[in-house]
Amino acid sequence: MKLKTQKMLHEKGFVGLYLTIVVLILMLGIIASIGFGVLAQQRIAQNIVQSAQAYAAAESGVEDALIRLANGQNVCDPPGSPPCSNTLQVAGASATTTVSDIVAGSRTIIAEGDSLNRIRTTQVVYEISSSVPGFHYGAQVGDGGMYLDNNAIVDGNVFSNGDITGGNGSQASGTVQIAGVGKKLNNVDVKVDAYVDICENNGTTITGVLHANTPGSCNYGSWTSGLPIDPIPLPIADSEILQWQNEADDGSPLGNVTVTNTNPGVDLSLGPKKITGELIVDNNATLELTGTLWVVGKVTIKNGAIVQLSPGYGTMSGMIISDNIVLLDNTSVSTGGQPGRYLMYISTSTSSQAIEAKNGSQSDILYTNTGTIKLDNNAKPREIVGYRIELSNNAVVTYETGLQTAAFTSGPGGGWTVTSWKEVE
Predict the structure, then answer these.
(1) Out of 20, 152, 165, 369, which residue is the most buried by the measure of CB atoms under 10 Å away?
(2) Residue 274: which of 305, 304, 252 has the closest Cα?
(3) Do residues 269 and 292 lie in contact, with contact meaning Cβ atoms separated by under 8 Å?
(4) Per the domain annotation, does 265 fall within a domain?
């Protein structure tokens, strides 16, 4: 009996020990489970924090690049021109920002934020806010009409809201359109078709079809009658010119500016800027535009001087606006600097010589809503648009196909807008 009792006590002790061990194991399992859960939550929380820091760094990288671009500051490390990259430290994270070159009027900015190997990437598309006037003709003329003399040539199409009169071998290589009732075409050799209400003078020759209600004594390949075409306005409104002027005014205007040749290469880089006096570029000097110039006084480019757009314009075009007369003289060259990019002179003067190009000067686009453009002595612009246009003495306008899509802005330092901002990774 005693042995049986001892055996029972022994078995009960073993059961108690077993239960204790089981309870301890269960408790340890619960504690371990809770511990692992806490650690997992801590890792998740840490990942969230690091990911947020990486995103904040990427956003900061983009914002830093946008501010620098808007202010004309360097965005490259080492300093240079895009495409390039730089690195920005943001608290314990970093952002590597890549800025592309200008392609089709826009840049792409990509910033990769990194916080303890947690990566977030932001992409922004930064486009030039631009105007595309649509220069579809070699010469577009307002109500003042057009006069061609002494072998003057428009190598392209012509549209005019006023009469067109020529003489001494004047010609247009493309189609000529004259809008409005009672408007006339007189003594011009048109190599394609002509549209006009009245055609005059047996010195007028139309190689193609003459569309006229009154063909007169003109020479033509064939003739058809019909209503005259409707007038169209010149492609740039006064309000748009005023906006460009305001964008050029940076609050610190200059007086008279004279650029003369001092060193090989560029003698002065300038813009956007308002000039309250005159602008003179002379004696083989080179002026590089980094933004729109608004000149209150006269603009004179002469004696082999060069005016060109800076590489920062990319594929965009730029301009010089004068409230006075623009004179391009003595083999001066005014150019966008690369194919598809153009430099435009605008005069808001009502003068009979608002813009005058002569003596072998070369230029891209000449424009005035209110005055007269005069070309003389082998002047060679690519496009002319004016209230009235006069060509004489072998002046030639040679239209370039890309002009119809030429886009203008105030320049690399202004006129940009963000059109897309998103996370890409």
Answers:
(1) 152
(2) 252
(3) no
(4) yes
Backbone angles phi, psi at 379, to 5 degrees: -65, 145
The whole-number pLDDT of residue 373 equals 98
Residue 176 resides in a domain = no
Give the residue-averaged pLDDT of 3-29: 68
Cα gap 243→272, rounded to integer Å: 13
Q: Can you tell me whether residue 9 is helix, strand or coil? A: helix
Contact status, residue 187 vs residue 206, Cβ threshold 8 Å: no
**121 lies in which domain range?**
2-129+415-423
Three-state secondary structure call for residue 11: helix
**42 and 9, same structural domain?**
yes
- Pairing between strand 118-128 and 93-99? unpaired
Number of domains in the chain: 2
Pair 110, 248 in one domain: no
Q: Which residues contact 378 (CB under 8 A, 6 or more apart)?
A: 359, 360, 393, 394, 395, 396
Tell me: do 54 and 156 sit in the same domain.
no
Does this model's pTM top 0.85? My answer is no
Torsion angle of C-alpha atoms 285, 286, 287, 290, degrees rounded to 10:
-160
Q: Are residues 117 and 143 in the same domain?
A: no
Q: What confidence tens digit (pLDDT) does each residue in 76-119 have?
A: 888 777 888 999 898 889 999 999 876 656 789 999 999 988 89
Note whether 66 and 109 are within 8 A (CB).
Answer: yes
Residue 180 lies in a domain: no
Co-location of 92 and 152 in the same domain: no
% of the chain at pLDDT higher than 70 = 90
* 295 part of a folded domain: yes
- Whether 104 and 406 have beta carbons less than 8 Å apart is answered as no
- The set of residues, in sequence order, having a beta carbon less than 8 Å from that of 91 and lying 6+ positions away, is 53, 57
